[in-house]
Write a structure and sequence with these properties.
The protein is an alpha/beta fold and about 350 residues long. It folds into two domains: about 100 residues, Beta-Lactamase (2-Layer Sandwich); about 210 residues, 3-Layer(aba) Sandwich (Rossmann fold). About 35% of the residues lie in helices and about 25% in strands. The protein has a seven-stranded mixed β-sheet with strand order 9-8-10-11-7-12-13, with helices on both faces. It has a six-stranded antiparallel β-sheet with strand order 3-2-1-6-5-4. Strand 12 and strand 13 form a beta hairpin. Helix 7 packs parallel to helix 8 and helix 8 packs across helix 10. The longest helix is centred in the middle third of the chain and has 15 residues. The radius of gyration is 21 Å and the shape is globular.
Length: about 350
């Protein structure tokens, strides 16, 4: 079995992830569900390790054998780019490969609303794209960065772990740094970034106090800074950023965040009604003066009210976004209700009767 054939087969079917599992044939996530990739045999421990190692450089193999964990990315010519996580479990070495399209999707392909597209015009500030793993955060950010790359003569700097989408410098200079390969840590890269004359900075993941603090500082000092968090909605995103800081610093970070946060886009992927893939439901919060005051005063629980009344600024709650997808015939009522923040609110917005599944 050649791994390139497994990858070709899975990507041609539209898989989002590929799993190499000992004791099973190669598996894939298709339309949100795990299934075998057709026409491949069960793999044993030796085959699994051999297939995985065929994708890795010698240095990556050595790093994996030292730490028993490895995050990296690779491009397979004629197939796609893949983000790879290699790990050891009780039966041997296994891996999960995330499929990354070689082409960055357009706003139209992603169904990005005008309010999200306009984020690419912002001169400075902090923009957070949030959601669970596999919700398309990287794809949305890649689309926005590519828009900036096409129209602005500036410097875009990304810090990622690992690099996912790759950019060709167009009107902008684009530099990409991978944690572990090109820099020791997000923190080290971000500290250096402020001396590298960037206009736009992408922080692949804001995972700790140092990274979040440096991202806020970068936004405060006149840069447009993009970041991701694994939070479900705008209020919890703001709380997550603030709660990372020690109690004595939280009032200060509220003031900084109120002044720098420009937008939060929280997204989920929902299976399409026609079975042809998934579609994104996006909650959009733009930081108006009213929302800025709520952040400063620690009243994040009131932000949903401001989102509901902020349609003229392009704002929309997750429940309204799900209701809109249902009304457009793109998702079923059941799938929309499964992901609702407030089931009663979603029923009302979608015009669903109480007995609807």
């Amino acid at each position: 079995m050649e791994l390139v054939e497994v990858l070709k087969s899975a990507t041609s079917l539209g898989a989002s992830d590929i799993h190499l599992v000992i004791g099973k044939p190669p598996m894939m996530r298709l339309n949100g569900e795990i299934a075998p990739i057709p026409n491949f045999p069960i793999i044993n421990a030796e085959q699994s390790k051999s297939l995985i190692y065929s994708l890795l450089y010698e240095e990556q193999r050595a790093r994996f054998e030292q730490t028993l964990e490895l995050d990296c990315s690779t491009a397979v010519e004629g197939v796609a780019r893949f983000r790879i996580n290699v790990f050891s479990q009780k039966n041997g070495v296994e891996a999960v490969l995330r499929v990354i399209s070689s082409k960055i999707p357009t706003p139209e392909q992603l169904r990005l609303p005008p309010a999200v597209v306009k984020i690419s015009d912002m001169p400075r500030g902090l923009v957070l794209v949030t959601g669970p793993t596999g919700s398309g955060k990287s794809t949305t950010l890649a689309c926005l960065l590519d828009l900036i790359n096409q129209k602005d003569a500036g410097h875009i700097l990304t810090v990622e772990d690992p690099i996912e989408y790759t950019y060709e410098s167009k009107k902008s200079i684009v530099r990409q740094r991978e944690v572990g390969q090109n820099t020791k840590s997000f923190g080290a890269a971000l500290r250096a970034a402020l001396r590298e004359d960037p206009d736009v900075i992408l922080v692949g993941e804001m995972r700790d106090l140092e990274t979040i603090s440096l991202a806020v500082t970068a936004a405060e000092t006149g840069h447009l800074c993009f970041g991701t968090l694994h939070t479900q909605d705008a209020p919890s995103t703001i709380d997550r950023v603030i709660d990372v800081f020690p109690p004595h610093q939280q009032s200060q970070i509220r003031v900084q965040l109120a002044g720098t946060l420009q937008a939060v886009v929280a997204q989920l992927l929902v299976p399409r009604k026609d079975g042809k893939g998934r579609v994104a439901a996006r909650e959009i919060m733009m930081t108006t003066p009213a929302i800025s005051n709520l952040i400063r005063e620690g009243k994040t629980h009131m932000i949903y009210g401001a989102i509901d009344t902020g349609a003229q600024h392009g704002m929309i709650s997750m429940d309204r976004a799900l209701a809109n997808l249902y009304k457009e015939g793109l998702v079923t009522a059941e799938e929309a209700l499964l992901r609702a923040h407030n089931v009663d609110v979603l029923r009302r917005l979608a015009g669903l009767s109480v007995g609807t599944a």
